[in-house]
Amino acid sequence: MSYNVEEMSWSDARNLLRKWRDDNERKSDDVMQLWDNVLSSKQSKLGNERHLVLEQVIIAALDCNRIETAEHCVSILSAEFPGSLRIQKYRSMLLEALERYDDALDELEQIIRKDETNAAPRKRKVAILKTQGRTAEAIKELCDYMKIFMSDQEGWHELCNLYLAEGEYAKAAFCMEELLLHNPHSHLIHQRLADIRYTMGGLDNIEMAKTHYCKAVKLNVNNLRALYGLFLCCGHISNSKLVIGKRKEAQKLAQWAMGQIQARTQPTAKDTKGAIKAGKSKAAGCEDELQALEQAFGGLDVGKVAN
What are phi and psi of 82, to 5 degrees? Predict the structure, then answer.
């Protein structure tokens, strides 16, 4: 932290925490330093921001494995808001940090039963199941979540990752296709969908992968992964039993992709000359320094001493 915590007033610390909340920055270590040195004894002065600061400290304490501090803040909020689902979520996170996963899942289930539209506990439930290695159950829970929150792009990404971990490539491709509906101009989504189709294999999937690699390159011509993928797909197609027209088209496209790859990976002659020139200048500078040292030390053979 670039701030001197010991000289900081409580109002400065409060304003700094407020800025981090507004900027959505966690800075867990810094938050704990401010809490320990400044704000823990000045809670009454925080006014309406006191509860927000306590929530911020809970997250920071869990990040830093400061379980006792997190328990203290959760107990304060629980006493003031005994029936709050928000505080119950923090209790489940505390149980999760203590690796009491079954108790944490029970807390989350209670929150979901009380408020079925609350997305946060459903996501935490998926995270716990994934942590425990219960991938099949995590997939089922996330599928149930996506039926309610269909526009959650992060959810589709996570479901795709879980399907890939289980080798369910067709279902993972479906997740990426759903993401394309939300963000059709993302070259990374096109690239990842093409990667999955290429992995699935088969001529039909290879052709679909080529289409998405082409789209990824069109959206971002500097996407080297898409260029390499396009080259590989065209290589498969040109060696396949498709009609000769498609094979010739694939050969031309493969040559173009390789040209683009070489243009972006091989250094130009100008860069090579510049690097050689810089190396010679550096060597000359070292020789000058060596001569100056030899003169300064009365003809001492610095080169031999250095070796």
Answer: -65, -30
SS (H, E, C) 58-108: HHHHHHCCCHHHHHHHHHHHHHHCCCCHHHHHHHHHHHHHCCCHHHHHHHH
Least confident of 44-48, 240-244, 278-282: 278-282
CA distance 33 to 46: 17
Q: 193 Cβ partners below 8 Å, 6+ apart?
A: 173, 176, 177, 180, 212
Query: Would you tell me the crossing angle of helices 85-97 and 119-131 to the nearest 10 degrees?
Result: 10
CA–CA separation, 53 and 39 (whole Å): 9
- Per DSSP, 235 falls in state H
Q: What share of the chain is helix, strand, coil (3-state, %, to 5)?
A: 80, 0, 20
Comparing CA positions, the residue from 12, 55, 59, 19 lying closest to residue 34 is 12
DSSP H or E segment with residue 50 = helix 50-63
Residue 16's H or E segment, with its range, is helix 10-22
Provide the whole-model pTM: 0.75
231 membership: H or E segment, kind and range: helix 224-238
- Output the CA–CA distances (angstroms, integers) from residue 36 to 56, 57, 92, 172, 209, in the order listed: 13, 10, 24, 46, 54
Token duo for residue 258 = 């390789």
Q: Are 247 and 237 in contact (CB under 8 A)?
A: yes
